[in-house]
Fold this protein.
Amino acid sequence: MRSLAGQILISPVRYIEPHAHMVSRVTDDYRAMVTAGCLAVCEPAFWAGFDRSSAAGFYDYFCQLTSHEPKRAAQFGLAHYCWLCINPKEAEDLTLAREVLPLIPKFLDRSNVLGIGEIGLNKNSRNELKVLEQHVDLAARHDQLILVHTPHLEDKRKGTRLTLEVLRNDRRIRPERCIIDHVEEHTIQMVLDAGFWAGMTLYPETKCTAARAVDMVERYGSERLWMNSACDWGVSVPLAVPYAALEMRRRGHSPEAVDHMIYQNPLRFLGQCPNFKPPAAVA
Ligand SMILES: [Zn+2]
């Protein structure tokens, strides 16, 4: 590694945060992200840290994601987008899932909706698989992009393999319109080999550190790959993406390579959704 001591490692960066749970963050986090160069933030629907008691809780959450949160981000000039679904954990309750899924199409014409996500598996259960198939069908019928969550609790490799099978079994689904998130060293290869996009989630304790993420970039290349902070209600870092950019620069990656990874790649994937407006065109 060549030494960059004394050089400015990170001249102003621009980036897209492709996966952040902003409803659980304070407003100061928005300010910090914009200050660090964030031009757009995308928020998948996820577990709130507790189980909701009814489908009405999801209706309110979808309103929050499509109406309230974009206004909070706009205070800082930040574009806010979202994904909709019933998360894999609560999808274990088939009765609840049956009530929540029909709510989703009503929200798909909202201007900040990118697709169906984050769907997938939590404990690789039969019920979760069933609801995953229903979500994939919903996405296919409405021509939506798909964002997939892969398990942390149970076997990630098995969960990823099962998810890829579901997606490949539906002939309407095009891999280049799906991103498989939270990949790690033992799952990234199978995702990329199958033609899907892969996401690396940067967490301080679990999932993937910046150093491991940059190792993967160096090993597998930066095509069809993005980084996100997934910052949520747990221990997580809203600036994890620019911190990983700093790690890339520290190792001697060029500013262009960093831009490719944290700005151009999310732009390329998300640009497949007509609702996603390239930040430069918005400014
Ligand atoms: Zn998430």
